[in-house]
Amino acid sequence: MVDSITKKVSINPFCEVRIMSDSFENSPEYDDWIESGGRDEDYEYYYNKWQRRTR
Q1: Cα separation values, 40 from 33, 36, 51, Å
Q2: Nearest CA to 3 among 46, 50, 47?
Q3: In a designed cystine with 46, which of 2, 26, 33, 41 is the match (CB 3.0 to 4.6 A)?
Q4: What confidence tens digit (pLDDT) does each residue in 38-54 have?
């Protein structure tokens, strides 16, 4: 099961739309990469981990 993150976007005061976001930047793998130091040499590892989970 893939947990998706939602973003709340207000178009006007009377309407609310939720947009599904499946980008790497909104993923637990991205958070793990940042927490590990966010080194360029580690980016590919975490990106590939996210891609395997979401594809």
Answers
A1: 10, 11, 17
A2: 50
A3: 33
A4: 999 999 999 999 999 99
Is 49 inside any structural domain? Answer: yes
Confidence (pTM): 0.60
pLDDT of 23 above 80: yes
**Counted domains in the chain:** 1
Q: Please give the structure tokens belonging to residue 55.
A: 């594809």
- Beta-carbon count within 10 A of 33 CB: 21
53 belongs to a structural domain: yes
Please identify which residue in the block is written with the tokens 């975490």. Answer: 46
Rounded-to-integer distance, Cα 16 and Cα 29, Å: 28
